[in-house]
Write a structure and sequence with these properties.
Blueprint: H1 8-18, H2 24-40, E1 47-51, H3 53-56, E2 62-63, E3 71-80, E4 92-97, E5 108-114, E6 120-131, E7 136-140, E8 155-162
Antiparallel strand pairs: 1-8, 2-7, 3-6, 3-8, 4-5, 4-7
Helix pairs in contact: 1-2
Length: 163
Amino acid sequence: MALTLEAGNLVWTKVSKALINANPAVQGQFKALREYIVSQRANPTLQFVSFSDADITTATGYTFQAAAGALTLYGFYFIKNGTSGTGTATDAWISLDNASTNTVVATKFISIPALVAADQFALTYPGGLPFSVDFTVTGETSAKDGTEVSAGDAGSGFAIVGA
């Protein structure tokens, strides 16, 4: 998928809809990110990219641009499958790679554990986190092994990216 930027207000509407049932702390992080980007970063064009558990557990991960080049990450949200008290208890590590695959340990920028059902987290980068090669998201069995977990042990979410 190529980077397809659109007006910031359209992206923030999608973010609001995606976070309707999210933890209030997560909602607050994205509200603060939006306010900062709109007021301090001249409201740049962005892209909202959602992903599913099936996307991030395919061989070599889910690549946002299919080797189309650099992008900047502003926000990332993930929620593990299941509901509080039910669902999967199998650990999953959500990795963000600066590459078109998840196969090289040196290209992993971030690995975050999702250990219990319905676990959710958000990452925000008001100044943007540059990915110089590509952006790949993977649900893995450990922080750096490149072995995908089953879709049932992963989860879904979205990223906000820009040029």
